[in-house]
Amino acid sequence: MIAVEGLRKRFGDRTVLDGIDHRQERGQSVVLIGPSGCGKTTFLRCLNQLETPDAGRITIADVTIEAGGRVDRERQRQLRLRAGMVFQQFHLFPHLTALGNVMEAPVRVLGRPRDAVEAQALGLLEQVGLSQHAGHRPGQLSGGQQQRVAIARALAMEPAVLLLDEPTSALDPELREEVRDVLRRLADEGSTMLTVTHDMQLARDIADTVLFFHAGTIVESGPPEQLFGDPVHERTREFLRSVRD
User: Fold this and answer.
1) Angle (nearest 5°) at CA 50 between 3 and 160
2) What are residue 86's phi and psi, to 5 degrees?
3) Domains of the chain
4) What one-character-per-residue DSSP string does 97-140 give?
């Protein structure tokens, strides 16, 4: 479902991604962890083409983009349609209700009939536990509720993969659990997910595989019980000690 080969990205003199290779099967949930500035979010943004990589190849579902040449705008658009993005700061439209936020892209971008989209959107809000808040605007919702609307909005486009950038980091501890519950269910239901997080509990809960990033490379990968319980590399052990302290 996701294949990344030799992905490289620089900002000025700084190498942020240094030849990343990654393969992910349909229905697999992969979580990226590592210190701030190690390239995790840049990797996610390159997959969704919010950042343009300098070199490498990205394939999501049946769409492939080669970096380093002229950007094919239509191929870029098709890749974005297959990669739903959930951001740290929600980015909901403040003037629209929860239902309106979930409906907006399928109606305007995909041109789907409003009645069919509304039925789908109500089902997605129910899936994330917010059907009773369908008529509320973002300012009337808690942070955890807004993030759940953002997840429903991404799912409304029926993406092949769901990319989540720090989905719980902007939330109070009590609200974090609301979002973890939704993501656990999605993982259990077989959604293909790639999640960047500093929330180690979330990583344990939803990951089939955890990748540890450091200095723009994948230092170590493995199932959560192995990587958290008996990491191989000293740099991984140092990082895990720092987040436990």
Assistant:
1) 45
2) -120, 125
3) 2-244 (3.40.50.300)
4) -HHHHHHHHHHHTT---HHHHHHHHHHHHHHTT-GGGTT--GGG
The residue whose two tokens read 């980091």 is 169
Residue-wise pLDDT for 57-75, tens only, equals: 999 999 999 998 788 899 9
Q: Which amino acid is at 229?
A: G
What does the CA dihedral 233, 4, 170, 242 come to, rounded to 10 degrees? Answer: 10
User: Are the C-beta atoms of residues 151 and 167 closer than 8 Å to each other?
Assistant: yes
Distance CA 117, CA 158 (A): 12
27 SS3 class: coil
Q: How far is CA 52 from CA 17, 43, 101, 186, 245, in A?
A: 12, 10, 27, 29, 36
CA 22 from chain centre, in angstroms, equals 15
208: helix, coil or strand? coil
Question: In this predicted model, what pLDDT tens digit does every residue of 211-222 receive, in sequence order?
Answer: 999 999 999 999
| pLDDT tens digit sequence for 91-140 | 999 999 999 999 999 999 999 999 999 999 999 999 999 999 999 999 99
Strand partners, 65: 58
Q: Are 235 and 219 in contact (CB under 8 A)?
A: yes
